[in-house]
C-alpha cells in the first residue's frame, strides 16, 4: 500500500499564493519533517491535506486515493488525523470529553472507549486527569491531550502542526520522544511540521524544507542535517 | 412574609418561561454568533400551530408537542435555507457582522406578516391545561395557580432533558465542541454545518415550548411574544450569552426580580426594571454573572 504522495500542490489565500508546486512523498510508516520559517506555508500545507482549505491545483493521494476536495469528516474516516497548531484542545471540555471527541465520528462507543484506554496507557498523566477541565492542564499535557485525541480516531496518517510551539525546552524534548515512540509502536505515517528544525529532523526519516511556499530541498533527514549550505540558509544553526 | 413567598413562587414560574427563551437565544448565539431576533417570530408561529392543534383536539399537550415539532422544523429551516446562504455571500467585512442580525429582524417581520395573513391579528386564547385560579391557603387565595406549577414542572423536565442531551450524549458533545471550537470539531470528524442546524432546531423547539406556556397564561397575537424575546435576551446577557447554565440562572434572577418589582413597586416599572438590571450587569460584570473574571474568548 502506498503512503502519502503530494504532487504539484498549489494553494492560495485569495490573490496571494501560499504554496507553489509542492511535491513530496512519504512512505508508509515513515516520518517526514516539514521544515521552514514562519510564513513559509507549512501550516497551509497541513490544512490543505486535512481538508480545511481548498487547493488551487495539483493533487495529493493517501493510499492511492485522492484527498483533495474532501472535507475533514471524510478524511478522518479514511484514517487521516490532523492536530492543528497551538495545543488544539477544547479548554471548556474535560480531558475525557476531549478524548471522546476523537472517536465521535464512530457510531460504536465501545471502540472509542478501547481507543481511549490505549491512549491513557501511552499518556498516564491524562488518565489521572480525566474528569478535570482541559483548561487546568499544563502546556505539555495539553499537547499530549491534542495528540491523544487524534490517536483515539486510530489514524494511519497523522498530521502534526508544530507540537513544540510555546513549550519549554525540556517539555519539547519529551514531546518529540513521545512522537517517535508512538509512531513506531502504532506504525503511523507522520507529517510533522516544525520550526524547530533540528529536533524534528532527528526523529524524522525524511525532510522537506519549504521556503516562501516552495520546496527548496528534500531528502533523507540525515542528509539534510549534514548539508552545510542548507544548515546555514534554512536550518538556522 | 407570605407575600415574599408568593412573589418568589410567581417569579419562579415567570423565570422558567424566560429560561426557555434565553436558552434558545444562547443556543443559537453559541453555535452561530448571531443574536436571533427572529426567535420571537419562530416561537410565535410555532405557538399558532400548537394553538390550532390544541383548540381542535382540545388537548393542550398535543398542541405543545406540535409546537415543539413546528419550532424545531422552523429553526432548522431558518438555518438551512437562510443563514447558510447568507453566510456564503456575506462572509467578510462589516457586512458579515451586521447582515445576519439585520436579516433575523427582517425574518421576524416576514414571519409576523405570514402569521397575520393566516390567522388574523386579533387576540386568541388557548385552552389552559390547568386552572389559573390561585391556590387557597387557609382563608386567603394566593396568585400562584396550578398552571404556574405546571409551567415550572414542564420547564424543569425540558431543562433536565437538555442537560442530559448536552452532557451525556455524543450529539451533545458534538454540539458543544462545534460551538466552542468549530475547527477542532471539524478535524474530529464532526459535520459541523449539520450539527449547527440541529442546534437551531433544538433552539426552535425550546422556543415553541416557551410560546405555548406564555400563551396558556395569556393571549396569542402576532406580537404577543415580543416582550418574551426582550426578557429572554436580557436573561441571556445576564448569564453571559455563552453559558446555558448562565442563561437559566439569569432567567430566574430576572423573573424573580421583576416579580418583586411588580408586587412591591408597580406594573409601570417592570420594563424599566428589566433594562436597569441589564445595564447594571453590563457595567459591573459584562461577561455575565457566571463569569469567573476572565474572558473565555478573545
Provide the descriptors you would attach to this structure in a database record.
heterodimer; A: 237 residues; alpha/beta; six-stranded mixed beta sheet; four-stranded antiparallel beta sheet; 10 helices; 10 strands; B: 298 residues; mainly alpha; ABC transporter involved in vitamin B12 uptake, BtuC; disordered C terminus
Number of helices of chain A: 10
For this structure, the quaternary state is heterodimer
Number of domains of chain B: 1
Beta-strand fraction estimate of chain A: 25-35%
Main sheet properties of chain A: 6 strands, mixed
| Total DSSP E strands of chain B | 2
Write down the Rg of chain B: 19 Å
For the secondary structure, the number of strands of chain A is 10
Q: Structural class, from helix and strand content of chain A?
A: alpha/beta
Strand order of the largest sheet of chain B: 1-2
User: In order across it, which strands form the biggest sheet of chain A?
Assistant: 6-7-8-3-9-10
| Amino-to-carboxy terminus distance of chain A | 37 Å
Helix content class of chain A: 25-40%
Structural class of chain B: mainly alpha
Shape of chain B: globular
Q: Outline of chain A, from the CA principal axes?
A: globular
Most extensive interface between two protein chains, with residue counts: A-B, 26 and 17 residues
- Which range best describes the helical content of chain B: under 10%, 10-25%, 25-40%, 40-55%, 55-70% or over 70%? over 70%
Amino acid at each position: 500500500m502506498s503512503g502519502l504522495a503530494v504532487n504539484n500542490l498549489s494553494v492560495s489565500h485569495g490573490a496571494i499564493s501560499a504554496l507553489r508546486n509542492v511535491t513530496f512523498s512519504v512512505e508508509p510508516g515513515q516520518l517526514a519533517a516539514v521544515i521552514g520559517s514562519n510564513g513559509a506555508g507549512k501550516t497551509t500545507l497541513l490544512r490543505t491535506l486535512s481538508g480545511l482549505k481548498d487547493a488551487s491545483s495539483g493533487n495529493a493521494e493517501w493510499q492511492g486515493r485522492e484527498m483533495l476536495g474532501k472535507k475533514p469528516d471524510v478524511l478522518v474516516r479514511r484514517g487521516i488525523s490532523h492536530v492543528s497548531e497551538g495545543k488544539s484542545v477544547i479548554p471548556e471540555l474535560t480531558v475525557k470529553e476531549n478524548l471522546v471527541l476523537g472517536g465521535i465520528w464512530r457510531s460504536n462507543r465501545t471502540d472509542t472507549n478501547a481507543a481511549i484506554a490505549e491512549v491513557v496507557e501511552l499518556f498516564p498523566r491524562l488518565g489521572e486527569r480525566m474528569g478535570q477541565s482541559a483548561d487546568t492542564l499544563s502546556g505539555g499535557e495539553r499537547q499530549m491531550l491534542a495528540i491523544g485525541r487524534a490517536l483515539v480516531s486510530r489514524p494511519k496518517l497523522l498530521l502534526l502542526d508544530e507540537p513544540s510551539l510555546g513549550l519549554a525546552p525540556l517539555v519539547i524534548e519529551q514531546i518529540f520522544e513521545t512522537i517517535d515512540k508512538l509512531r513506531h509502536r502504532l506504525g503511523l505515517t507522520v507529517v510533522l511540521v516544525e520550526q524547530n528544525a533540528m529536533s524534528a529532523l532527528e526523529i524524522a526519516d525524511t525532510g522537506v524544507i519549504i521556503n516562501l511556499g516552495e520546496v527548496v530541498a528534500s531528502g533523507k533527514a540525515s542528509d539534510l542535517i549534514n548539508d552545510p549550505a542548507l544548515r546555514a540558509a534554512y536550518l538556522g544553526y | 412574609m407570605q407575600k415574599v413567598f408568593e412573589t418568589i413562587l410567581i417569579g419562579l414560574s415567570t423565570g422558567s418561561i424566560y429560561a426557555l427563551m434565553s436558552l434558545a437565544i444562547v443556543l443559537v448565539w453559541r453555535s452561530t454568533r448571531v443574536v436571533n431576533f427572529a426567535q420571537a417570530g419562530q416561537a410565535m408561529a410555532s405557538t399558532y400551530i400548537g394553538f390550532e392543534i390544541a383548540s381542535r383536539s382540545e388537548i393542550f399537550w398535543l398542541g405543545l408537542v406540535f409546537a415543539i415539532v413546528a419550532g424545531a422544523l422552523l429553526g432548522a429551516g431558518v438555518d438551512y435555507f437562510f443563514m447558510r446562504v447568507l453566510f456564503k455571500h456575506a462572509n467578510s467585512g462589516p457586512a458579515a457582522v451586521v447582515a445576519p442580525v439585520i436579516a433575523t429582524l427582517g425574518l421576524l417581520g416576514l414571519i409576523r406578516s405570514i402569521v397575520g395573513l393566516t390567522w388574523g391579528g386579533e387576540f386568541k386564547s388557548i385552552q389552559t391545561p390547568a386552572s389559573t385560579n390561585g391556590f387557597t391557603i387557609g382563608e386567603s387565595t394566593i396568585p400562584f395557580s396550578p398552571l404556574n406549577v405546571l409551567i415550572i414542572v414542564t420547564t424543569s423536565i425540558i431543562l433536565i432533558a437538555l442537560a442530559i442531551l448536552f452532557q451525556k450524549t455524543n450529539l451533545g458533545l458534538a454540539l458543544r465542541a462545534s460551538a466552542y471550537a468549530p475547527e477542532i470539531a471539524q478535524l474530529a470528524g464532526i459535520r459541523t454545518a449539520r450539527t449547527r442546524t440541529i442546534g437551531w432546531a433544538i433552539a426552535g423547539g425550546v422556543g415553541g415550548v416557551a410560546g405555548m406556556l406564555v400563551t396558556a397564561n395569556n393571549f396569542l397575537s402576532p406580537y404577543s411574544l415580543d416582550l418574551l424575546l426582550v426578557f429572554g435576551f436580557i436573561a441571556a446577557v445576564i448569564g453571559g450569552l455563552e453559558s446555558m447554565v448562565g442563561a437559566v440562572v439569569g432567567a430566574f434572577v430576572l423573573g424573580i426580580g421583576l416579580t418583586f418589582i411588580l408586587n412591591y413597586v408597580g406594573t409601570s416599572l417592570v420594563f424599566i426594571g428589566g433594562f436597569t438590571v441589564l445595564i447594571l450587569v453590563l457595567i459591573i460584570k459584562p461577561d455575565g454573572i457566571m463569569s469567573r473574571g476572565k474572558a473565555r474568548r478573545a
